[in-house]
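User: Show me a protein chain along with its predicted structure.
Assistant: Here is one chain, sequence first, then structure tokens.
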Amino acid sequence: RTPLNAIVGLTALAQDEPGNPAATGAYLSQIASSAKYLQSLAGDVLDISRIESGELELHPAPYPLSEFEEAGRALCAEKKQRFTFMHSKEWPTLFVDRVRFNQIFFNLLSNAVKYTPEGGSVDFEVRIAALANGRLSLEGCVRDTGIGISQEYLAHLFEPYSRDASAYEQGTQGSGLGLAIVKAIVDRMGGRIAVRSELGQGSAFSVHLELLAAMPAP
């Protein structure tokens, strides 16, 4: 309800100042921010509903990972942090559900950016190795120097609607659904996710997936 209340309240304030473009513009900017958060929240709620009802579907198709790198860099450029992207020289083309693949790693990167102060660092390392029968092993690790996660909360990290008290203290927004959705997608893909973290010392999330390499066009 918080973003919706903000939208309603700010709209009323903007309506009270029809002759003040500067104030109206500021209100509209805040309304847009709250609307974007509400849109994200609605998407998370729909995803967790699909997951809980067993309706999470995957739609694999060829996905060049060079496109993934460009989107990842843009995401981390929004905040003044040191960002390092480490990977092999050549990106393969995977046969994977692009939306769900991006959802895994963009969620982890977004959290790293959100919970790392300006001047901190976010590192993303991807290692890919060839397996038999056209399969690839992909290890992706997102590391940050952010606020970290308490040891008590680590046991509940992937539970829907759960949030660490340290996140509240930082004043960051969140539904508590993102990591639950990430874990469900990784499980659905037959992969694994692990986390190492210490309060005040940052976090490291590791994801292991085994995926098909997309066959080149004849």
